[in-house]
Structures are given as structure tokens and as C-alpha cells.
Design goal:
Chain lengths: 313, 249
Amino acid sequence: MGRILIIAEHDGEQLNPSTARCLSCAGEFSGLECDIAVLAKDGQRVCEQAAALDGVRQVIRVDNDANEHALAAVQAPQLAKLAENYSHVLGPSTTFGKDLLPRVAALLGVAQVSDIMSVLANYRFQRPIFAGNAIVTVEVREQDKVVGTVRTASYATAAGGGSGAIETQAIDVELPDHTRYVGTSGSDAGGRPDLQSAAVVISGGRALGSEENFKLIYQLADRLGAAVGASRAAVDAGYIANDHQVGQTGKIIAPDLYIAIGISGAIQHVTGIKDAGTIVAINKDADAPIFEVADIGLVGDLFTIIPELEKLL
Amino acid sequence: MDRILVCLKRAVDYNVRIRVMSDGSGVITDGVKMSVNPFDEIALEEALRIREKGETEEVVVVGIGADDCQQQLRTGLAMGADRAIHVRTEDALEPLDIARILVQVAETEKPGLIMLGKQAIDGDNNQTGQMLAALWGRPQATFVSKLTLFGTTATAVREVDAGLETIEIDLPAVITSDLRLNEPRYVKMPDIMKAKRKPLSTTDLEKLGITPEARVSVLQTEPPQTRQKGKIVADAAELIAELKQKGLA
Ligand SMILES: Cc1cc2nc3c(=O)[nH]c(=O)nc-3n(C[C@H](O)[C@H](O)[C@H](O)COP(=O)(O)OP(=O)(O)OC[C@H]3O[C@@H](n4cnc5c(N)ncnc54)[C@H](O)[C@@H]3O)c2cc1C
């Protein structure tokens, strides 16, 4: 019988909700217990949060100064070593997991299943290809370990209330020093909710026309307590920072309500919002493809509609 | 550095709306426009700019696949690559085997950088660069939107969920490109003619000592669940009323 190891995503202080989504995915396997590995400089706080998730058997705490920042080249050999005791290794399909898991898989000499959206059996999964325009059912050989990334938008976060044990481990492997962390600059969310876990997301597209005009989106978002997203065209044009991009090459999200304003609805954008509860589109072109997927559409000029909406909210 | 290797995958053009075969055996690729995977094109553009700045002598493009992938290698040569290597195989290879092949190519070519797209827009796997870096035992900088070389090291700005992350890496290394790294140049007619005369060498899996494996089998391909087209409302007031009715505003 096997066992699942989930690789925790965190920033040294807070466990990222993507980890709790992986745990929900782990719950779809039959008869496999699940542990979470926390690699950190000082993992105490993150381990406590992980241990409190419902369904965790054990949290493995691996403290090492080299783990202060998540570098795939440094983490991969440690995880490949830990993986010896597991049949399945999972991580989130976030930029963290996408960077790390293939490196782990290669060290283990096995394939990786990317973006698992459903578990049909312990070695059989569904995943999207072609920007979500086709779904494949894939099967991993049972003689191999399964290494997979979990499409986080397909899973809710696992509940709290768990009481996993925390076990400290030292891993005896040589770590490379050829990769060094320098820094991260994030855009200031301005107190708005996180794009990947927000219940409501409002996105703006190329139609906004300038960074200045994009403030209209922020104002409306604040009225609704929403997170702010964007199309690639808006990011490329410099209206908003890259971490707001929604779509195939940005974030895949599943809010209860998604409002697309001045976005045409290219397949690469729509693939990022397919799992949203309700999609609203505001676009002056009645033939824009976004209306094909929108539950509620409003044809008109965003520069007149946004102020009207603000007044009504 | 002496050279940069750039991997070019032949993929369905990003403008094509793909359709699933009715028997669930795959997607329809017959008669569909094929192009260089757009992320790989960006990787090649970056390598060419590095050469134009005098920081490398040579840019070599590598393609793995059936004979038709030579079309994409010729596109790469027309963009400005100096020569091409075609690793011939009829099999649809998994990312791990692609990575094993590239390590073998790197053993003979000794590149200072291997550059590829962060993902291919067909399989959307986002694995090959990372696997290659692991097997090669070298640094990886994935999802890169800015790359600066300093002789034996480089800094890379990476597009991550939290924003932009900067790392420093020793060379040689593997770089996977994100969309904002650059905007690839257009190929001009005379360059296409010139590309026909540029060297293209061919090798195969046997010569490289690689036996591919089928670790993951694809059992079925289906169209995704489609969303229903909804209703069009007349104005902002009706929109808000709809949202209120759904308990969303
Ligand atoms: C490999 C690849 C990956 C990609 N990944 C992504 C991705 O992750 N995310 C993404 O979003 N895109 C992605 N793209 C780009 C995508 O193909 C589109 O180019 C992009 O989504 C277009 O952005 P847009 O809708 O804002 O702009 P446009 O397509 O230019 O649409 C603007 C829309 O605004 C409307 N409009 C104009 N003025 C007004 C007004 N005053 N009031 C109301 N409406 C107005 C227009 O009718 C139009 O529909 C990718 C492309 C490629 C090739």
C-alpha cells in the first residue's frame, strides 16, 4: 500500500492555501494516507498550520538554512530523498510547484502528471491539454512513483480541525550552491483579497487603455471587495503588474463571481476562468467571444457602464 | 560562451481552435497549421539577441521528432540561428525522454545556456526544462522575463505568482522563457532563402543511446465541459438585479 507526500508551499511564515487544495486532491485517492513536507529555514509556524489541516497524518519538518527561499535546485534533491518512503508525491500547480516537481520527478527517473484536475483511480487522472480545449485521461505505470501537480482551481481548500503529528527530520543529501536567491518584488495588493482565493474577481483588458484608466477597475473592485485581475494584453501594455494576469500563462482561478471588462475572451484567457461560478462580461462588441462563456453579458462602453455600476452598488 | 542551444518544438499554431476526435483517441491535427511553439520562439529570440550583443559565438537550434519538424528548424534558421540539429524519431516522446536526449546533445555541444519555452502549448506540461536541468545537474531559471549575463553567472527575473523573483545562477544553466521576455522578430523572405543553405545535421535515438519509455499512457481524450451561453442584459441596473438575485451582490 502506498502513501502520499504533499510538498508545502509557503513563504516562511504562512502556509499557502494551495497546499490545502492539494490535500483535497489527496482525499480523492483510495486508501492512501497523506503526509506534508515543510522545507524551511525555521518551519515551526508553517508546520503548525499544516498539521491543523483535516486529513494529514504527519507533517515532516525539514529545517535548513538553505531552505530559506524556495529554490527548486535546492529543494528537489531533499524531496527526492524523502520520496523514497512514498508512492505518490504531489504539489500545487502554482509557479512554485511547476518549478519544483518536474525536477523531483527527473531525479526519481519518473514522469510527471501536470495539472491533475480529477483522480479516477490511484494511478489514473484527468488533466487539461491545449489550454483546456481537451481533457485527457492518463495512467501512470504502477511500478513507478506518481509525481503530480494539482490544478488548484479544481479543488476546494481542505478544512481545518486536523491534528497531524510534526516530525523533525534531517535529510542527508548534498545541496548545490549554483542557484542563489536575490529578491522578490510583488505588486502591492492594496489590502485587496488574493487573486487565487478571492470569491469575487474583476478583470480589465486592453480596452482600459492606460494605467490611469485601470484605476476604474480598482475602484469597482473595492466596492465589491473583489480581487483585481487582467488580460495578458493589459499586463503587456503596462497597465498592471504580471502577477494579476489570468489565463493559460497566468493564474487559473475559480471565484464565485468573475467580471471581465473590456476583455475579448481569447481562449488563453478563458482557460483561466472556466471554473468560475458566474461569469459576467462587459464589452462594447456584441460579437466578442467572451459572451460565449458569460452567464450575464452587457454590451456597451465600459467608460459609461463602470460609473453607473458604482452608483448602483 | 561558445554557444547557446535552443529547443524548438513543432506544435499546433496558437490561433488554431483544436477539436477532439469523435472516437476520443486524440485531437485532430490533420491539415492543421503547425508552427514553432510560441514560447520556444521567444527563447530563440533571446538567444539571438545575446549573440548580437557579442556574448555568444553561436546559436544552435534543436528539434526532436519526425522529419516534418525540420520545417520548424528551418524557421529557426531563418530567424537567425547558425545551425540546426534534428534528432529523428517517429515516437511521441514524454518530457523525461526529451530531457534525456537534450542532455546527450549537451554532452557533445557543451553549451553555456540551453534555452526553451516554459511550456508547449499542445501538452501544456511545463516540465522539460526543469527535468533537463535536473539530469544535467545544472541550475534552472524557469518562467524568465529578463535575463542578464555576467560571464560565468547570470541573473534571471522570473514571473512567479507573488510577482517578479530574481535569482542568480552559475553557467551553464537551463532557461525557460515566459511571454514577456521579448517579442520575436518577423522572418523576412531573403532570410528564408538563406536558411536553406545553413547546416542542418541529423541524428537519432540509437546514436544518442536513448531508449524511450511509455511511463504514462493516454487512455482517452475528451472535449471539455462547455459553459452555457447566458443572457444579455440591457443595462447596468439589470445587471445588478441579476447579481442580487443570484446572491452575488
Ligand atoms: C501562448 C499564448 C499564451 C497566452 N496567455 C494568455 C493569458 O494567460 N491570459 C490572457 O489574458 N491572454 C493570454 N494570451 C493572449 C490572448 O491571446 C489575447 O491576446 C489577450 O487575452 C487579449 O487581451 P484583451 O482581451 O484584453 O485584448 P483584446 O483582444 O484587444 O480585447 C479588447 C476588448 O475590449 C473591447 N473594448 C474596447 N473598447 C471598449 C470599451 N470602451 N468598452 C467596452 N469594451 C471595449 C473590445 O471589443 C475587445 O473585445 C496568450 C497568447 C498566447 C499566444
